[in-house]
Design brief:
two-stranded antiparallel ribbon, disordered N terminus
Length: about 325
């Protein structure tokens, strides 16, 4: 985001009762990581850790290929991939653009321990999904693309890498710094105009004044700093297009390498980002509206609140109506 960062390193009334609830204290958006239902998650906290070296074995080669796919998704699976059959992503983003450190970074939707959390319930499909199915959901909803073949070499390699990253985490463990940290949700609507000013100061040096990102040196496809809106950014169906998830991500990780923003500042920057144009998601989507997260930025909704409130808040009244509808990435 800010220019000192090193280069290396997205309408109705709800009724009288909700008007009364608006005076309530800010509520917490819970942390992302959780054990799969019924696994009996341990109360013991396991520190964030993963293996130091990939083994020099045939499986190690598969793991390395999976890591390469996470790091350079655009080259292998993007619109310009050498193999036309593998042009499955609809934009030039790579998994590492959101999952920092190729999924090894704590508090940044990392992949450490993820293999033990699936199968898990996935609200957009209203069913339990495997880890492979969850990867494909990301390809469809964030990369604006299509499913990878479940038995293909690329899916096998990505799963091998995620399994390897999870090796040192016991099944059912309470993993420290997994997912995204909790926040106290501001008891107000987010302000995109304030967010624009904050974006210009903190974010534009890396992501561009127009939010279109910066390409890798000498690379016409991938990004060192990803676009946050526009035709090559994540789609409206992505978790990053949700106000509360984007706020948590920005607060924990941005400006990159020196996260100094307050929750309120991150909240307004997220609003500015996510009120810009981006690809619309088209596909199967939240058949059970009672589990649709309150910050999904498009209808239909189960309640009578406006689309603007679901986009920008205030979210306290919506969470009072739908306390379970806080599906995490």
């Amino acid at each position: 985001m800010k220019n000192y960062i090193r280069t290396y390193h997205y309408l109705g009334v709800i009724g009288l009762i909700c008007l009364c609830i608006m005076a309530c204290k800010p509520q917490k958006e819970s942390a992302v990581a959780s054990a799969s239902p019924g696994t009996g998650q341990s109360t013991e906290v396991v520190e964030w850790r993963f293996p130091e070296q990939i083994p020099e074995t045939p499986m190690g080669e598969t793991i390395r290929y999976g890591r390469e796919l996470i790091a350079n998704t655009d080259q292998y699976l993007g619109p310009a991939a050498k193999d036309p059959a593998l042009r499955l992503a609809g934009n030039q983003l790579s998994c590492k653009n959101c999952h920092l450190g190729k999924g090894t970074r704590a508090n940044a939707i990392g992949f450490v321990g993820i293999s033990h959390r699936y199968p898990a319930y996935y609200a957009p499909l209203d069913k339990a999904v495997t880890l492979a199915e969850r990867i494909n959901a990301c390809f469809v909803r964030s990369l604006n693309g299509q499913d990878l073949p479940l038995e293909g070499q690329e899916m096998t390699a990505m799963l091998a890498y995620l399994n390897w990253l999870s090796e040192e985490i016991p099944v059912g463990a309470n993993l420290a710094e997994a997912g995204l940290p909790e926040i106290e949700i501001p008891a107000r609507a987010a302000d995109p105009k304030v967010g624009q000013e904050l974006y210009t100061y903190h974010c534009a040096a890396c992501h561009g004044e127009q939010g279109l990102g910066q390409k890798e040196d000498g690379n016409q496809t991938g990004y060192v700093f990803p676009p946050l809106w526009g035709p090559d950014s994540y789609g409206s169906g992505s978790n990053m297009a949700r106000q509360l998830i984007a706020t948590r991500y920005i607060k924990a990780n941005m400006p990159l390498g020196r996260p100094v923003l307050t929750t309120g500042q991150a909240y307004d920057i997220a609003a500015y980002m996510n009120t810009q144009k981006r690809p619309d998601f088209v596909g199967e989507d939240y058949p059970n509206l009672s589990t649709k997260p309150v910050d999904v930025p498009y209808p239909p909704y189960k309640d009578q609140a406006s689309a603007e409130q679901h986009l920008l808040g205030p979210f306290g009244p919506l969470l009072e109506l739908h306390p379970a509808a806080t599906d995490a990435p």
